[in-house]
Amino acid sequence: MSDDTNIPYHARWRGRHGLAGIAIAMALSAAVSLRAQDTGTPPPPSIEQKATAGEKKADDSSLNLPEVIVTASPEGSAKNGYRCESAELGPMGGMSLKDTPYSLNVTPGELIENRNAHNPTDALKTNPTVAPLMSSSGYSSMSRVMVRGFTAGDQSDLRDGMTDRSFTLPPVEDIERIEVLNGLSGFLYGFSAVGGTVNYVTKQPTATPRTSVSMGQYNKGILFGQVDSSGPIGNDKLTYRFTGYGENGDTYIDGGRQSRWLASGALRYRVCDDTYLKFNFYQQGLETKGIQPYFDISGIGYAVPSALDPTKQYGQSWTYDNSQKGVYDLALDSRINDILSVRAAYRYGVMQREYSWIGAKFLNANNGTYSEREWETPRQDEEEDAAYALFDARFETWGVEHNVTFGYTHWGFTFWRGADVSKLLGNSSIYSPASYDVSTSCAGQTGDMNTITHNFLVGDRIVFDPSWSLLTGVNYARTVTETFGSYYAASKPEVSGDSLTPTVGLVYKPHPDVSTYVSYMQGLEQGGTASSTAKNAGQVLDPAVSDQYEVGAKATLWKRLDLSAALFRIDKVNQYLDTGDNIYKQDGREVHQGVELLATGKITDCLTIVGGWTWMQASIDKAANPATEGAVPVNVPEQQARLYLEYDIPKVPWIPGVITLSTGVNYYGERPVDIPNAHYIPDTTLLDAGLRYRPNDRLVFTANVTNFLDTHYWSYYRSGSTGDGLWLGDPRLISFSLKYTF
Question: How far apart are CA 150 and CA 576, in angstroms?
Fold first, then answer.
């Protein structure tokens, strides 16, 4: 590693991420050069051109064609049973779900909106493969989730297929759909969390003018308003999409308040036939006051007490979480000819946050006493970039169709932070929480982390005939993490790793509506970082290779109900905070295997179902520490299930429009909070209910009640590199919204 510690942070960051810009420039040059050389037959129209051409024909009365009424419901709409037939498979691009040899679940934007969801945890509540791991009302506001028992966050958060590492709440108001790829994704993205990736696909411009205005309330007393506008600018070559959102009000926690604003937009410019330039951005600010503490149970031998009333403030009303984030994308899509296409994009993002929170440590489980320690984090700043330059080739050899993608993807970030400051405030009680004054103050930055990843991949989806296809490929991935400053004193100055991560997946379709598959994928996971509470605080562990085997089937019944099943086995390095010596370490392997069952669509014309069931067996294997051998990893549930139903009430002559009733059942299995599994969070079943009334195509009113029975429960136990403790689940919450489209 070169000695450049005296170079300014921003200069080091830009210098080390320059390869992404070079790759984009090469892709742009190649597109221009190949187009200039192409003098053959013009390529067939793209999907976007077909849509534009269709609109022109519909408006041209001189054609004198008979009127054609299209009755097919849009993909992902409530009328279609929230079914989605395709998704983005990373660098491989858009692909039919039945042609994908992996478990991939899509939550459409209309379902998110109809459930009045305003954070990713709530938006993904109908996905049975996802479990909550963080909360928007927590001290860092992130909404990480667990997939197949592993954390899906940081570098596994994607936005429009590019890595979008985030330590603030990802907005969902500008989201068209959320795609969750369960399990490894090393071939696709090079580096990612083992459990899965979460891809937020943003709303894109429309060819016809459209504007909607909505308002409402959620989370007890937070009022919100939103405008979403789209259409052409001047002519059909330039189209736009803009989303503006604002909220402010009381949270369900006593003395808690929250405000958030979002400005998001997209521009799409048709340069020429089959060549588009796209620009996307969003800017968001979040301020939360009076957040709930985590409850440390190490002082009572990790015994799990009965869940408390979540509306009560057990910490301090002056605790806060403030964050801002901006993301800016520029992309090129161009089809050169019938065979070759090029895709290139570059993203720049900047984030900052600061927060203060209370760590509540139980002292006596019988009388409910606990100590309060204030933790304050100085302002943390981060810059990130992501990019890709990819070529797609479509051709045949001896009657076999090839869909080849090759190129380069990149992601990197530089993170500046300081050491947390803490002070013991005193004791408190769950029956009469104490009030303390603000006591600590943070200043200065004492460390920075710089991570760069490079991925070179080639993949081919080979179609032998309508029944058989093979997806195969390999990604050469390399990562380098450098740390500077006293915060990372326990870490090596440079931690690096590289690996070839292959994949192979065979798909067999015995019927056009049925597909079966078997697949294998390897992935390179970045090592975790020890938290400030660990003895080796700030140490970055080495990258490690993981393996995944999967067998599955997907089917569509009656052209309206999608079913899928998957058997999986994941084997990865075990990383955990050893409570014996308080060191964050790697020891042995963590093996998760199980089955996933999912259903989405219409059972009848009036009844819609979304949900499924996950059963999993997880254990630690080959560990040097005998206390961990064979144990279930902390916070990993054996079972979880979701069932969401919508029923359209038969039309009543004197009531215009459609009335829809909904209900949800959410089951969370028990989860261990320690090793060797002496104590567990109890299993929990929660009920939801909702009502939606659409008097006409322009107006819709929605009301929802979550946790209808107001069950008190522990949502999860945060451990591993943080060791923060138990988190209370949300109480009964009522939300409503009114939306008008014109």
Answer: 12
Helix axes 9-16, 18-37, angle to 10 degrees: 40
Structure tokens at 65: 């064609």
Rg of the chain (C-alpha set): 26
- How many Cβ atoms sit within 10 Å of the Cβ of residue 518? 15
- 3-state SS class at 685: strand
Q: 34, 7, 646: which is closest to 336 by C-alpha?
A: 34
Q: Name which of 194, 156, 104, 186 is nearest 522 in CA terms.
A: 186
Q: Is residue 104 part of a domain?
A: yes
Answer with the residue of higher pLDDT: 137 or 406.
406
d(C-alpha 257, C-alpha 237), whole Å = 44
Phi–psi pair at 640, nearest 5 degrees: -155, 150
Q: How far apart are CA 214 and CA 741, in angstroms?
A: 9
- Residue-wise pLDDT for 659-670, tens only, equals 999 999 999 999
Q: What is the CA angle 734-739-740, rounded to 5?
A: 165
The pair of structure tokens assigned to 106 is 């899509």
Q: Are strands 699-706 and 544-557 parallel, antiparallel or unpaired?
A: unpaired
Residues 6 or more apart whose CB falls under 8 angstroms from that of 406 comprise 390, 391, 393, 457, 458, 459
Predicted local distance difference test score (pLDDT) of residue 534: 77
Tell whether 307 is covered by a domain. Answer: yes
Tokens of 523: 């992935």
Instruction: Report yes or no on 2 lying in a domain.
Output: no
Q: Residue 708 belongs to a domain with what CATH number?
A: 2.40.170.20
- Specify the higher pLDDT residue, 87 or 499: 87
Residue 336: give the domain boundaries.
9-62+82-741
Tell me the C-alpha distance between 389 and 403, whole Å. Answer: 17
d(CA 693, CA 496): 55
Report the first-to-last Cα separation within the chain, whole angstroms: 58
**d(Cα 405, Cα 503) in Å, to the nearest integer?**
14
Could you tell me the two tokens for 105? 């679940």
- Residue 488 in domain: yes
Taking every pair of C-alpha atoms in the chain, what is the biggest distance, in angstroms? 83
pTM for the predicted model, two decimal places? 0.88
| Domains contained in the chain, number | 1
The strands making up 130-132's β-sheet, listed across from edge to edge, are 130-132, 145-147, 150-152
Average pLDDT, the chain: 85
Name the band, by pLDDT with cuts 50, 70 and 90, for residue 336.
very high
Distance CA 310, CA 684 (A): 15
